[in-house]
Amino acid sequence: MKGNNGGLDDEEILESVYTILVLVVTPTVSALGIVGNCFGVAVLFKQGLRKSSNIFLIVLAVADMIYLVSFNGERLILYHLIDLEAFRFLSDQTCSDFMVLFCIFFYFDYSTATVSYTLPTLITIERLIAVFAPLSFHRIVTVRRTWIIVLLMCLTWFAFLIYPSFFLELRVANGSINKSSAFIEHKFVTVSGPALEVLEHFLLYCAMTISPIFTAFGCLIISLKLKFENVKRKRMTTREKSSNRTTLMLLSVCVVYIVTCIIQSLHIYLPNEIVSTVFTDRSPSNLSKILHQSANIASCINCSSNFVVYICTNKQFRNVYVEIFCRFRKKRVW
Hints:
The protein is mainly α. The chain has a single domain (18-333), classed as Rhopdopsin 7-helix transmembrane proteins, CATH 1.20.1070. Strands 1-2 form a two-stranded antiparallel ribbon. It has helices spanning 10-47, 52-83, 92-132, 137-140, 143-160, 162-165, 179-185, 194-229, 238-265, 272-275, 286-304, 306-313, 315-333; strands at 168-171, 187-190.
């Protein structure tokens, strides 16, 4: 629709922005993140998994990769079937097949996202022990204990998300309907229930409230401790300096995580009319979809930026990466 001055209508502009965010920005950020995490995993394996920090980072990288793939698959299904109303041209069986695929993406999206958003808490605890109890660190934080804790956390969240996955359904309405009502009646929705609401609030509280707040306070305490230790930097041993470099890298990862959590939490303080998403009972506006997708992009940036953080903050990681990359290029040449 054209405006009075012959230009594009505001809603058309917003819809174009939303389309660019969904089909260009989000996949680009995610693709770069997947490639970066692959490089990160290669470097961490090269360094070895004898350090608890490497174990945390490799699990984080794998969770981030699975999340980026699952989120984009889920979002593209919603975009094509709902926003573009492709359901009008598909059979019931095809829609059901898409629904199964969507459920799979939904499960891995939310389970791996929860792992990614709670793992920084474990990283913070590990660094607090390393900074405040350096002499006892290797006795308290062993490789075996680290693997057990990480795997227990992953299994807990993966098991936790099985139940909500069964509450997804595809509603189909008969008769001629306009685009607005189509958004309400032809979409993937969650069936609300007391148990499901409790689980949902618990999940959000752990991932988006407890974990970022604890991580923020932990990072602040560690930063103050490191600032105090800078006075004694000249008397540091090589081992202590290495520990400080690792701490700086992990703190940087946590800071990026905290910033993206703040961006994603902004919708809590905005009016409901603005932040309604595809899972509400009314047709969301283009502005609300843009805000929702912007929060999703922040999540993708959180899962895509770790490799850049490693390269920028850790010289040893950077050297191993250059070594692997140069070796790969030599093999390509030969």
